[in-house]
Amino acid sequence: MGYSLFVTQFCCIYTKGINLNRISLLLIGFLMGAPLSSVCGAETSRDFAKWEKNIVAYELSDRINPPPRHALLFVGSSMIFKWTTLARDFPGQPVINRGVNGTQIVDATHFADRIIFPYSPRMIFLRAGGNDLWAGKSVETVFGDFQTFVATVHARLPETTVYFISWSPTPFRWKQHEKEIALNALVAEYARHTPKVGYIETYDMVLGDDGKPRPELFIADQIHFNVAGYQLLAARVRPFLPPLPEH
Q1: What is the pLDDT of residue 245?
Q2: Residues 119 and 1 both lie in one domain
Q3: Segments forming the whole domain that contains residue 216
Q4: Could you point out which of 34, 91, 102, 208 has its C-alpha 20 to 30 Å from the C-alpha of 40?
């Protein structure tokens, strides 16, 4: 592991607050060549094996039909996983969907070696964090997990831009909308001051005249977008895509 990666790991820990136990783990990991996710922000108690079947399915698909390198990679939880119209929504753009239903930000970090780095993506669009908040994590913890994700990506892909697709409220999880606003605000501020990190605002796009999410934009579970919801989401993401080559 190189010096730059060590510095990235140390900075990752520093941004979450100095803790001697965490620094000790970092030094041990540095000496043993451990990956960033194993010493910076990883959840040792999390059952990552829960998602193994999904990750293996993606790896098998990659062997059968290798995806393009330097593409636009969409990762995150169910809102990404269920976004099956990416190619139609962004015609001419090389897109890869590696969403995993039910995951948190730490899962994207943990599996980066398998569903991010092999593609050397030009841009990464992450939408995750809602499950994290719903599971009881604090806003600050989820934000720290996002910082760890960025540090993990940029340690290997320093020229790749990471976009955070912000959280928009849902009818079913309306009680956590204030936490979603707070998380969005932290990420937006972080993106303003961090190279190769961007923020895509989506909170307001689902709101009706009463200031609450419009039920007609969601499927029956009132959590996930229907076709109309995804059309709004695509419209918010589209301005951040690279220009298409002229023919």
Answers
A1: 77
A2: no
A3: 50-240
A4: 102
